[in-house]
Amino acid sequence: MARKFGKKNEVKIDPLKYNICLLGEPKIGKTTLIKEVCEKLAGDDGYIFLEMNGEAGADAIEGIVYEDCDEWADVEDIVEDIIDNKTTDYADLKAIVVDTYDGWIKLAEQEAIRLWNKDHMDKKADTIDGAWNGFQKGQAKAFELMFDIIKSLRKVGVATIVIGHVKNKEVTDIATGTTYQTLTSDVEKVYFNLLKKKMHFLGLGYYDRTIVTEKTGKKNIVTKKDITVNKIVDQHRKIKFRDDNMALDSGSRFADIVDEIAFDTDEFIQAITDAIKAEQAKSGKSFEDSEKEQAAKEAEEMKELAKREAEKKEEKKIESVIDQIKDFIKDNKGNMEAIKPLLEFSKENGYANPTLIDDLSIAEQALKIIA
Fold it and tell me: Which residue in 13, 102, 118, 11 sits closest to 52, CA to CA?
């Protein structure tokens, strides 16, 4: 007897099948790099940047595809339209880019507070700490809202790429009690830790600087020692995917990801692709065979998705028509002469009640009778 549960995973070949996060210092080029990554992997129609809470990073980048999201409802409207029309209007869409994570958090917190206040009129909250009974349950609800978006997009074949800012932070080692400096996300720790668990690739962009100490030619009048200054003589932009020294808060679910690369579009794609290839090689199949099989499987999945989309759209159309029929019956209550033709038509087509019609063609014919 075959097992009912337990399925064998097959590593996806396409890098845009994974959730990716790129953190980085301000103005280091995060948005530009991710735009170029998306265009090289999926084309101009393969991505949409969501500029969260007035981020406006797209303003300075020619040709970027984006939408402004100043309220949580904006995010929901966009995602709902993608899900409803993935195989038609968004057939080439592979990724949604959140720019930036801290802006998205603010919108999610506002929505979490609104939902709490809606159901708790006697315990209204003004802050996320006061919502959902506190103890970071409000933050957990806000992240749940964000992760529901990520999950719903993934179900229709759209990955989420998250861009975020960083800050220096002092951390205490649990084992030794030693404190050290690390470069990490600038958002509240609970949000960063929750995000890290959901990302397949987490890179951190930073400046690798060479700093030298130079004498100024002056002496301290008290100590009589030379006065010196630190001077940057060289710097390069880099991305860290893994840091064993824990100075840069990065990581990946793929064991063979390279530790570090230059801050470069092609190197970014290569690093992720190589990590995927290294893991896929453990399957015993050639990379090319897996690529073909997955492409064929995805094509079949898109056919099924297209069928479900069409059925859902027809259901919505039927609901709209039936709502108009209900309104007509309500407005003509007691006027059997007006309603009688509609009732007779319904019975002729096998429906005891016109509001029970579940065939779009018949429903539209019924509507014409009362139009």
Answer: 102
